[in-house]
Amino acid sequence: MESTVIACQKSLLDYLADVPDPRKARGVRHPLPAVLALICCATIAGAKGFRAIAQWGRQHADHIGPTLGFTRKPPCHSNFHYILRNLDVVAFEASIAAWMRDMADGDVVAIDGKTLRGSRDGEVPGVHLLSAFVAAKGSVLAQLRVDAKTNEAKAALELLSLVSFKGKVVTMDAMFTHKDICTQVCKAHGYYVVQVKDNQATLRQDIQSAFDSDFSPLGKARA
User: For a surface tag, which of 16, 50, 195, 221 has the fewest beta carbons within 10 Å of its beta carbon?
Assistant: First the structure.
């Protein structure tokens, strides 16, 4: 009988295993991937702050603890505080992003920018994020913070370099209708759908002329 090998996707724990552990080996009671995975789960469930995360972990310890890799009761809030304060944030975010890209395998990726609700503080503007989003899976593949001195179009070039668009369709609004952005998508062997408005009159006219041309399917149909 022939055997078949099925390639399985890496789990979140697999990706989190690549994050450096900031703790000293002596006295470590919980695996770092388990702790970080619990933080992710609790945050998705709506927990805000170290105490809420710890409380959520204790409440669900019996059925989720062993799955995440805990061999004893999950840590208290002070442990979460220490770990996150000393954690390599860049490595942590990279592992989450890699997991999301693996899970959110879709054909259409939307590039869009949003300001985080409630992030504005008086005269300080809110945090604005530019994201590559797979609507079909409700997943963010990558995101960048856009400060006041950087427009979204420039940030889009950097964002596009973080995600593989091979064989995918990238949708963007009129703000991103720039030759360099579209060229980058094509170089990544992807496809793009962008809006063209009246503020790009020449481009709009060129597109209209192409559809009105006798060489277009529409032109041949009218002929």
Answer: 221
Where do the structural domains in the chain lie, given as residue ranges? Answer: 12-100, 104-117+126-212
From start to end of the chain, where are the E strands? 108-115, 128-134, 139-145, 169-172, 191-194
Q: Any residues with CB less than 8 A from the CB of 138 and at least 6 apart, and which? A: none
The answer to whether 19 and 67 are in contact (CB under 8 A) is no
Contact by Cβ (8 Å): 35, 26 = no
Grade residue 19 by pLDDT with cuts at 50, 70 and 90: very high
CATH T-level fold of 104-117+126-212: Nucleotidyltransferase; domain 5 (3.30.420)
With a pLDDT cut of 70, the percent of the chain lying above it is 85
Using CB atoms within 10 Å of the CB of residue 53, give its burial: 0 to 12 exposed, 13 to 18 middle, 19+ buried: buried
Alpha carbon dihedral 79, 82, 83, 88, in 10-degree steps, equals 170
Cβ pair 169, 147 in contact under 8 A: no
Q: Quickly state the pLDDT bin for 2 (edges 50, 70, 90).
A: very low
* Cα angle, residue 61 at apex, residues 99 and 18 outer, rounded to 5°: 30
The residues facing 133 across adjacent strands are: 110, 140
State the pTM of this model. Answer: 0.54
Cα 217 from chain centre:
39
CA distance 160 to 191: 12
Rounded to 5°, angle at Cα 106 from 101 and 109: 85
Contact 155, 146 (CB under 8 A): yes
